[in-house]
Amino acid sequence: MYASLKSIASYIPPTCISNTDFEKVLETSDEWITKRTGIKTRYFAQSHQQTSDLAYEAGKLAMERANVKPQDIDAVIVATLSPDYLTMPNTACITAFKLGIENKPAFDISAACSGFIYLLCLAKSFIESGTFRQILIIGAEKLSSVLDFSDRSTCVLFGDGAGACVIGSTEDKNAAILDVHLGANGRYQDFLCTPRTHTSFGQEIEIARSCVQMKGNEIFKLAVKTLVADVDEILKANALQPQDVSFFIPHQANLRIINAVGENLNFSKEQIIISVQKYGNTSAASIPMAMNDLYMQKQLKYGDLMLLDAFGGGLTWGSALVYFGGK
Ligand code: COA
User: Fold this and answer.
1) Of 13, 45, 74, 171, whose CB has the highest number of CB atoms within 10 Å?
2) Digit-coded pLDDT (tens) for 201-218
3) In angstroms, what is the span from residue 258 Cα to ligand 1's centroid?
């Protein structure tokens, strides 16, 4: 019995913000953003929409596409760095409740932009060990709620959105989550972080901002190196070549990173899936959102082999080989 990705769905929030919109409020230009990142637009949630609302929309569609009812889901796991609440309740609890899934385990994981790969690893283990029969996994972000909109070096890079999958089981190895590799190193914790206020006994509370801070140049170099090594490792471990893969779906942070990784690994243009120009970096939602675009363009068929690769704050990273097991 193998774990299998039965459906893919995403939710894109309604407000489209172009680079030109940023030109009106920041000292920046469409030319600078396009040249350095490839990003042209990103979507932001409305102020009343929380991360769980975005997760709900993607999760509902993923359940419909897998033909699964709320009572058939055994657990809900959400990956996010922009939860509804600071520490509790977790966003998965709120999302599950909105979906009509009650009295089932629901929890969040924190692995920043690698969150979706971490979700796949957990789901694969839970299904193959027999702990759960069907799991809803969701990468969801309202990054607009943790951005400093006066910092041009970060705020133009990110977007909001959610992507969800139902993970079930199969006896067909060609519809299985074949392999997942994960890594992390806290040595680089300050390369990409959201500092928070810490209270302590006897001290007045200082209200500090808790927005995304990034060392862009440092993270760029490490991202390319790590992503390439990661792909190399998982392909070798499974005796596969780049040409054996139907689609290479990397984390969508920056077009220059994607192109550098793709060229280094000799993937063809047709194999590399790119959606960063439309959505910006949506962190844990970026890979399932890109995967859903592929699905909506009717390019993704049962048995297609996807190679997923992500890198993010922590630092965390991970790659996965996944046969599409949906219809
Ligand atoms: N518009 C215009 N100018 C900007 C700008 C913006 N939005 N953001 C920064 N700049 C300026 C800087 O202030 C700097 O000006 P200075 O030379 O006068 O000091 C200049 O552009 C160059 O800045 P630098 O940070 O060296 O640019 P860069 O070529 O490294 O590009 C990033 C910056 C963020 C696009 C790039 O480092 C990057 O993509 N890093 C990876 C980020 C990422 O993907 N993170 C997520 C990983 S999950």
Assistant:
1) 45
2) 888 777 666 899 999 999
3) 16
C-alpha 26 to ligand 1 mean position (Å): 14
Say which DSSP state 135 is in.
Answer: E
Give the rounded distance of the alpha carbon of 72 from its chain centre: 24
d(CA 220, CA 257): 7
Q: How far is the CA of 174 from the centre of ligand 1 (A)?
A: 42
Ligand 1, atom 11, residue with closest C-alpha: 153
Residue in this structure with the two tokens 């971490």, named with its chain if needed: 118
Query: Residue 28: CB within 6 Å of ligand 1?
Result: yes
Q: Kindly report, residue by residue over 113-141, the tens digit of the pLDDT.
A: 999 999 999 999 999 999 999 999 999 99
pTM exceeds 0.90, yes or no: yes
With a 6 Å cutoff on the Cβ, whether 19 touches ligand 1 is no
Residue of 288, 157, 287, 255 lying closest to 212 (CA atoms): 157
